[in-house]
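Q: Could you write out the predicted structure for this multi-component system? I'm mainly interested in how the pieces pack against one another.
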Amino acid sequence: MKINISEIADSRELKYKEDDLSFFESMKEDSLGEIEIKEPVSVDISIKNQRPKFYVTGAIKGAMTLGCSRCIKSYGLSFDSKFSMTLEQVRDDDLADIHEIELTDQDLQVEQFTGDEIDVTRIVQEQIVLLCPMQPLCKEDCKGLCSQCGGNLNEVDCGCEIEEKENTFSILKNIT
Ligand SMILES: [Zn+2]
Ligand SMILES: [Zn+2]
């Protein structure tokens, strides 16, 4: 969704379901691993016009499906996250680098844009990416896969000889 800034008198509230999540497909190959968002994300956003600056506060709510980095099982993760940022409209020739994000305040980003439109979809997508764990875990203490038989150690006690001391000891006892 894109908002023309001429449609923002003082401020503008937007509530909608973001369903343009196709960007995930292209990011999967890179850093995000197997992350999928199957349902549209609820967006509740408010944009305050103080031209050339626009103050954005919002919340996104939804759920993603990830692959655990230890046991490769997929699991769901719901999110409900608030954010705030500042956008600054600049002319094309003033734009040093459109991808450059300047950190001014502790948690306020200033992001420059050109043209007359604020790309809300892109803002939402960026926020979702920030929420994606770099090393997804289905649970804090996921035991992962057995290095011998590949069994999921959360679900099976395969009894393979692994570097766990207690295990080795009991196996030795069985031999004698
Ligand atoms: Zn796991
Ligand atoms: Zn095993």
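A: Regarding packing and overall arrangement: The two ends are 71 Å apart (CA to CA).
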